[in-house]
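[step 3/7] fold_predict: job queued, chain A
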Amino acid sequence: MNTPLGVAAVVLAVAGLVAGTLALRTLAKLRRSVALLSRGSSGRETILEVAEQHMAASTAVRRDVLELQQDLNAAHQGMQQQLATERAELAETVRQLGDAVATVLRRVALVRYDAFDELSGRLSFSLAILDDHGNGITLTSIAGTSETRLYAKSLTRGVGEHALSPEEEQAVRAALGS
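[step 4/7] structure written:
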């Protein structure tokens, strides 16, 4: 009976020896890994020191990025203010040009007619030259068989300084677009 028990004890002893050897190898690997972590691969710096340096560099980069964002925001606000100022100046210029254009004599209408029964060909005419407010002049030419007469009348707000003929009134209405 001692033989099987002895064989079992030897087998268990060999298995314990193998398990102990494997455990020692694993422990040696773990110690090497811990040594690398504690002193680094070059032996000069630890991984913790490298991680701290990386974190410090990352913090510096983050700070620089935030400063750049602030600079960009300030520049953007400055550009927005400058743009608003330029828009206001442009709007004022457009308004001034609109006021100036309103006084330009640019509304023109011509009415041709026969002033006398003995003359045909519509050689007589009334010409209205006005600005946007109805200020301007009328020129009327009445052609006869032996002479031609020219009349000029000034207008203020579409009303003549002297009474207007029907043809002059027609020319003024046409020039004002009504």
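[step 5/7] annotate
Residues 47-102 form the longest helix (56 residues).
The two ends are 136 Å apart (CA to CA).
exit 0
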